[in-house]
Amino acid sequence: MITTFNSNQFKKDMNNIVNYSIGFLQGVQKGKTLFLKTLGMETVEVMKEFIDSNARVNPEMLHHIYEWSLTGSPEARLYDISYTVSNLGLSFKSSFSQSRSIKDGSRTPFYDKARIMENGIPVTIRPKTAQVLAFDDNLSLIHI
Fold first, then answer.
1. What 8-state DSSP symbol labels residue 65?
2. CA–CA distance, 78 with 101 (Å, rounded to integer)
3. H/E run at residue 143
C-alpha cells in the first residue's frame, strides 16, 4: 500500500490553524483588558463604599480621611483610589487630598490632615507672633 502525502495541503492547513490561534489569542487579550478595566472600576467603587460605611460605624477610626464633621460622607472624602491595567495585570493606588474645611475653633484647614494622621506623623505647633502658644481647653488657659 502506497500512501501519498500532500505537503502543500498540510502547509495550508497548518497556516490556517496558526492564524486562527493567533487571532483567538489576540481576542482573548483584548477581552482581558476590557475585563480588567471593568473589574478595576467596579472594585474601586466597592472599596470606597466599604470605607465610607466603616467610617460611619466607627467614626473615631476613620475621621481623619474625611472633611471635619463629615465622616463617612462620599462628598467629604480626603482619599482617592485609582486603578491601572497593564501587561502585569490590575493594580490599585491610593492617594490623599488636602482638607478644605476648617475645624471648629481654628482659622485655617489642617494642612495634609489625612496623610499626617494616617501615618502617625508628629506635628509641632508653634506660635506665629507671640513667645508662647496659648489656647483654651475646657475654659482653662494653657500656656506652652
1. G
2. 11
3. strand 140-143
**Could you tell me the residue ranges of all domains in the chain?**
12-143
**CA angle 9–15–19, rounded 5-degree value:** 150
Q: What is the pLDDT along the chain (144 residues), one digit of tens a residue?
A: 666 777 888 888 898 999 999 888 888 888 898 999 999 999 999 999 999 999 999 999 999 999 999 999 999 999 999 999 998 899 999 999 999 999 988 888 888 999 999 999 998 877 778 887 766 666 555 545
Q: How many residues does the chain have?
A: 144
Angle at 128 between CA 127 and CA 130, to 5 degrees: 65
In angstroms, the first-to-last Cα distance of the chain is: 108
